[in-house]
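Quick illustration for those who missed Monday's session on complexes.
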Amino acid sequence: MADAWYGGPANTGERVKYVEPTGEEKAGLLRYKRPPSTWDIFQKEEGIPIWSGIGISDSRTLPREHWERMGALGTYIQLIGTNNSTGMFVLEVPARSATRAHKHFYEERYIVVEGRGSTEVDRDGSSAKTTFEWQPWSMFSIPLNATFRIVNATSSPAVLIGINTAPIMTNLMKSKQFLFENPYVPDERFGGNLEDYWKPQDEFEAHPVQGRAMLTSNLFPDISNCYLPLDNNRGPGYRWVNPNMAGNTVLTGGFIAEYPSGRYSKAHHHGSGPVLICVKGKGYSYTWPKDEGTMTPWANGKGDLVQRLDYGPGGMISAAPGYATWFHQHFAISKEPFRVHAIWANINVGGGGAARPASDDGMVAGVGAEITEGGTAIPYHMEDPYIREYYQSRLKENGAEYAMPPEIYTPAGSSIKIDY
Ligand SMILES: [Fe+2]
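Prediction with fe (ii) ion bound:
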């Protein structure tokens, strides 16, 4: 059945006779178009808008249209660099309504941007129904293939941002039956005594690989105000936690992070995938391609390669929207701290680094360690002088105080090491 959904490069439905080359001639085409992936086709079939860009100041401004499968309103967001890896959408559950009860064989996480409501979750018709309530900036993750319904019993709309691994799973399985009518609910993710499944947890532990803070909890009642432990890795006073939710194995590398007012991160680089969603305060991010002379882009006449996005709660940016590795850097400009939630669905980005060879003597310091240490972060003392100059002007404009400790701009003060 070579239908469009089944698709894929080898199943476009076209049959063209192969002509073997002669002599030194090469077989095949020199240039060819990437055919739409099953995920591309699926998104179109859904009949809601698909927005694309490097980021948006506030995703609530995107038009939301009737979404038949969900029984609600929505828009897809496909940030540049996240194609076929991270699925994202804005979902609106209108006042006094609910989404359809549905299930899917991919991981999914929700962040509530506006409104209050509840979510009902069960194991496909079993009596083990669970339910929990949410409010603005609650975050929850639906266990793989559990049946769920998002309910808004209030008189105003609820708006949620959804993040999932649907692109990976649709492209891999190419089967609606597998994704949406699958009876298998893994016990490891949603089994046993489910009574306390949605009880928010508050005990931090060390991430077993990275040693940084991790919190295993299927529901975070308020990620804009919850306590975040001190981390210092991305800059002085930086706070950070890795949420470990619903037994997910792909949507597991993300984090909630906070920059104090008046401070900013070091720039670092890696491949595309991660998305930052602002949950509190106001800030901006730079993102630019790593290339000859772009470590100090303005000083080298390459400032036009740097893209900047200002964003606040509900806004988001693709950290590295290029095909290759891109630098990015984040700045708090509000009087209150700038808090972001980061997430990605590519298994080859971040601490997991599945594409790297396994080794017993530890991974090379990755995105957090500085360039001088074999990492990818630009030390503050080596950054382009324009970065600080522009930052200070933006703080002034917002009535916030510059708060970077001066010693951070010396080689000794800057050498904060991490192994991620
Ligand atoms: Fe990054």
